[in-house]
Amino acid sequence: MDWGTLQAILGGVNKHSTSIGKIWLTVLFIFRIMILVVAAERVWGDEQQDFVCNTLQPGCRNVCYDHFFPISHIRLWALQLIFVSTPALLVAMHVAYTRHEKKRRFRNGEKIDIEELKNAKIHIRGPLWWTYTSSIFFRLIFEAVFMYVFYYMYDGYQMPRLVKCNAWPCPNTVDCFVSRPTEKTTFTIFMLSVSGICMMLNLAELCYLVIKVCMKEPRKTT
Amino acid sequence: MNWAGLYTVLSGVNRHSTAIGRIWLSVIFIFRIMVLVVAAESVWGDEKSAFTCNTQQPGCNSVCYDHFFPISHIRLWALQLILVTTPALLVAMHVAYQQHQEKKLLVLTGHADAKHMEEVKKHKMRIAGSLWWTYVCSVVFRLLFEAVFMYIFYMLYPGYQMMRLVKCEAYPCPNTVDCFISRPTEKTIFTVFMLVTSSICIVLNMAELVYLVVRACARRSQHNSNPSSGKSSFYGHKHSSEYKQNEINQLLTEQDGSLKDMLRRNSGLQEKGDRCSAC
């Protein structure tokens, strides 16, 4: 069970998304998940081995690493991507439920073409509109929460070259050096920008859905 | 055989599960197995190599690591996830057995054409009769396994928290030695995360159990207030057409009615006139 399986699961949801939703999914898979797997994991691969402290005191390096990196960027991004992609499954479940209801009506004698049922694009209306809008809303919330967590943990998104550590058992204050700080800063800013783009796409999609509903209503009343 | 293989095997079961069962399966695969593979395994990857003790005594490091980590979290979670997902295979086996019985019945009643055979494979089994019992047993086993593993975790790693420092006195370490664990905060975060998802799965399983019991009670009370379907007994005569008819009767009494619905829909035959009094 890895990113490939998640892509297979979410690919099915794509069929029932709006155009902005499809763009969002593409950005998610290509500019975030793929970059994470193909590049970022290598950059952070030796984060603890190459975290070097200017001391021979055993245990000092472990403790200082743990103090400055309570949870690694890579894991935070992996969790963020999992949480952000999961609301789309709400939509998939709702679509599956709608199809199941239609099949039941077919079984009870109503004339519905079963082939058309399988392939028909389900329009985002009624309760499905609410499910879809909630899923976008949750995505936005998760993105915002994770960006805040990043900002709170790593003061300002930049990776420093040197950190000064005085946690026990380090003697007094010890200089510790982070491996590949510039590369890490570059990737952090990249992932942050793409996260911002995804948030804007989600906001745009939300506005589009609301406007679509508002446009339909005056037409109904006139 | 890896997690992807398990996913393929279990997605087949998904079709015959209740809605809560499907949600449970999604939570297991996305929030537990995927997090384990994609994140947790790399956190625990260097747990032994970065376990440092403040001593130069050879062997002390290994002995202390073994003393404090008899079995690693990652292996325990892998075992837990395998044992928790496997009872669903009981249901898959029962469904396969029922499908086999339905195919036999189709052959006996002369509906053994490709279209009916395909539909046997594709239609969703109703969770009733013996399948209900199998399904309920599988949910009970899942609950048991989850609870047992949570208890094992608590016994092995009291409080679920990972310490930064452990003090080790096992031979050959001289006196008491300070040993430092790698990434304790990250490990605590993931332990708590996996614990929370495990609890969510326990709640989903209990909800599913309650739903199944309530549904069965509702069905039974509906059946009691509408006793239109009787069941015939099995006569066992060896006369060819009567024997065949009786075998059909027996197979029909074992079915939950889904095959009858299917045949009724497809052939439009009158049940009472054509087949049996078991209907």
List the helices and strands and how they pair.
The complex is a heterodimer of chains A (222) and B (279).
Chain A: H1 3-14, H2 19-43, E1 52-53, H3 60-68, H4 73-85, H5 87-107, H6 114-119, H7 127-153, E2 162-165, E3 174-177, H8 181-221
Antiparallel strand pairs in A: 1-3, 2-3
Helix pairs in contact in A: 1-2, 1-5, 2-4, 2-8, 4-7, 5-7, 7-8
Chain B: H1 3-14, H2 19-43, E1 52-53, H3 60-68, H4 73-85, H5 88-108, H6 114-122, H7 130-156, E2 165-168, E3 177-180, H8 184-224, H9 240-254, H10 258-267, H11 271-274
Antiparallel strand pairs in B: 1-3, 2-3
Helix pairs in contact in B: 1-2, 1-5, 2-4, 2-8, 4-7, 5-6, 5-7, 5-9, 7-8
Can you walk me through this structure?
The complex is a heterodimer of chains A (222) and B (279). Chain A is mainly α and 222 residues long. Chain A has one domain: Up-down Bundle (de novo design (two linked rop proteins)), CATH 1.20.1440. Chain A is 69% helix and 5% strand. Chain A has 8 helices and 3 strands. In chain A, strands 1-3-2 form a 3-stranded antiparallel beta sheet, with helices on one face. In chain A, a hairpin with an 8-residue loop joins β2 and β3. In chain A, α1 packs antiparallel against α2 and α2 runs antiparallel to α4. The radius of gyration of chain A is 24 Å and the shape is elongated. With 279 residues, chain B is mainly α. Chain B has a domain of 185 residues: Gap junction channel protein cysteine-rich domain (de novo design (two linked rop proteins)). A 3-stranded antiparallel beta sheet of chain B has the order 1-3-2, with helices on one face. In chain B, a hairpin with an 8-residue loop joins β2 and β3. In chain B, α2 packs antiparallel against α4. The longest helix of chain B is centred in the last third of the chain and has 41 residues. Chain B is elongated. Chain B starts with a helix and ends in a 5-residue tail after the last helix. Chain A: A connexon is composed of a hexamer of connexins. Chain A: It comes from Scytalopus superciliaris. Chain A: One of its GO terms (biological process) is gap junction-mediated intercellular transport.
